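Sample 3 of the quickstart, ligand magnesium ion:
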Amino acid sequence: MPADASRPGTGLFHRWEGLILILLVAVTTWASLGVDGFANSSNVSFLLLDVTEIALMALTMTLVIVAAEIDLSVASTLGLSCAVLGWLWNAGLPIEAIMPICLVAGALCGALNGYLVTRLGLPSLAVTIGTFALYRGLAYVILGDQAVADLPPAYTGLASATLGPIPVMTLLVALLAAGFTAILHFTSLGRAIVALGSNEEAAFFSGIRVKRIRFWLFVASGAMAALASLIFTFRYASARADNGSGLELAVIAAVLLGGVSIFGGRGTLPGVLMAVLLLGVVRNALILADVANEVLNFVTGLLLVASVLAPNLGAVWRRRSSPPLEGKSAS
Amino acid sequence: MADTPPVLALRGVSKSFGAVRALREVSLELAAGEAHALAGENGAGKSTLVKILSGVHRPDAGQILLDGEPVEFHGPADAQAAGVAVIYQEPTLFPDLSVAENIFMGSQPRGTLGRIDRRAMRAQAVALFDRLGVPLDPDRPARGLSIADQQLVEIAKALSRAARVLIMDEPTAALSGNEVARLFGVARSLREQGCAILFISHRLDEIFDLCRRVTTLRDGGYVASDLISAITPDDLVRRMVGRDLDALFPKQDAAFGEVALQVRRLTREGVFTDVSFEVRRGEIVALAGLVGAGRSEVARAVFGVDRWDAGSVEVAGRRLKPGSPSAAMDLGLALVPEDRRQQGLVMELSIERNIALAGLGEVRRGPLISRVAERVRAADWAQRLQLKHRSLSDAVDVLSGGNQQKVVLAKWLARKPAVLIVDEPTRGIDVGTKAEVHRLLSELAVGGIAVLMISSELPEVLGMADRVLVMHEGRLVAEIPREDATEETVMAAATGRPAGGGA
Ligand SMILES: Nc1ncnc2c1ncn2[C@@H]1O[C@H](COP(=O)(O)OP(=O)(O)OP(=O)(O)O)[C@@H](O)[C@H]1O
Ligand SMILES: [Mg+2]
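Result:
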């Protein structure tokens, strides 16, 4: 085994990512052969389109979790942004003006999270559970339970347009994924994120602006949720306050299944993207195979649990089995 | 006397980690009532040997003998049951439990119905501290105890379990002079009570002071076991290094330039008060004092890790923004921190990435990190500091303690700072490399860098410093030029006794 392969936090590809890739190929092959209607181009387009929002939010979520934080409010931010869109559209603003406003609103949601976490020193888990409820609640305040559906066809069309079997939005995802992969794995910002997620104090002593980076990660997460909200709204041609509710679990599950350590400091974006696809393929195949909804939920739940457990099992096991003194020994 | 077998012995023990052969057929005998030193350079295998004796690692080959009988330790619990206790440099107590509760953790005296008998526990703790001759309060919480006191609690814990073998892996590295003396007092009385002691230190004088025998390792191999009375420190160094060492403190005289670091009336409430000093280019200024005098805190504030309440810091005439290490680094400041595991290194990251971490801007080509630049930077410094490692892409947590310290030094020296603050730069570093680090600091000074060195080792302070500043209880109490700096003058100021002359 090459020295680089097994070590956390350094290379692009580790054993875990290899496992996900094999699983992805296996499940896809099984579905293509065994599930009617899986391997045709319209289903492929549908599948890819269906994971767009999850994939986008997983990009920023990966950075956030590698930095040893978490953002549970992404789906609520998405909902809030949808509500803002619907409300302003009803008020008669042009959609080109509304979209940047939504992005700013998402960024502001992220900024509030970031402020509470970095300035007031509150744990992000608690903060974003709070804003999870807050932002969704705000969405209802803004839009109530109406659905705004008369959105401009130019945009609703674009949101589900395809080039061959590939949706245009997937190209956008690919572009952003390439950018985020470069950031996490090949830039000094990425190095800093990994370092601060692994040992915040040592990162701070190394001149890394720990708080600033964390703050902007939350802002990015919020803005990305807003971007996802635009695609979501146009794709379903419906802006509602409850858009995307529950999506945060799918995003976090994909990130953890992709091999990102819930303790921070470790994880790769290729792994996460493959996990997003894997979860998408499984869901899609099971739906096509007419699996009962309860079973579908069960399997999805199982994958969620597995995704949380498996990649971190090694870490948990190491923690528990190493005698407390060993790690602290002087030399 | 004649034929009692050693309490604990290793015979032909080998241990490898992957391709690294940490121990090769090492033998060692610990006799009751005897203090035995284990010497060797960084990475020689000392801690690995300790971990085998304490059941953390299992040997690949060879035997552990308890009272002459082969035993196998399947884990630390087995070793403890056999009467082997280990004191590490940084003990791990439960901070919110009382001292007595910590001592009896897992083996509390029981009363009726199996309830923990607090009164018995307390009485036994008092008896233990009496036996050790140290006045520790068994009722106070462990939080806030000095490292030295925590070690004593660990020793009391070992005693409460009737430990027959006490192993101490670099216990003195973070202790001040008095605390070392107290620890040695305790060790001697244990020795007299029939305990076997295994002692590891990079300070030769401590080995010669405490121990009767010394076993030397080099590169994982057994070199020799000698009676201390039969060898000199030079002999011991030769056994460790395999050759003669040059003078230990090759301090060169440098020409002083303009003031590089100017600290004026710096105050952080409750921590240090009204600290003013300057360091010129080419000068090495030592900050001496007892552990807890506030030296590291001053360094942390100057570097921006902590905020200060009043005063100012200037680097080369430019005022420093408080509370920002990155601003300090932009002005050419570097701090090699006190605690390498917490503050110096990201343990899971590789050697090269740790070295690059403080200079990410310098290993960048365009917007991206250049792996080549990163590798070259690390390789250069690994060689200059004689880092003992397998591959630069190995995580730093597999390095020996001293070699981890070298990585921290490399990380900061690679930045080519204008003002270098080093906090205990040679803690845990072996004699040979210590001389190397001193040579390096001296060279840096000659090259025009201003060096502020915090050190608890008086020989280091006296050997290296052009000027010695002494702190006592958060205040700067003396400034002693090189000519007047002696053990007496520095210690007098450090302990707050009025010195003969000024201050
Ligand atoms: N868990 C491990 N995995 C891989 N290599 C290891 C591990 N533990 C120790 N080593 C290697 O074994 C060798 C001996 O290390 P050890 O910690 O015993 O040295 P030491 O004599 O205690 O040094 P120091 O004086 O610096 O504390 C080193 O080369 C070290 O890198
Ligand atoms: Mg060691």
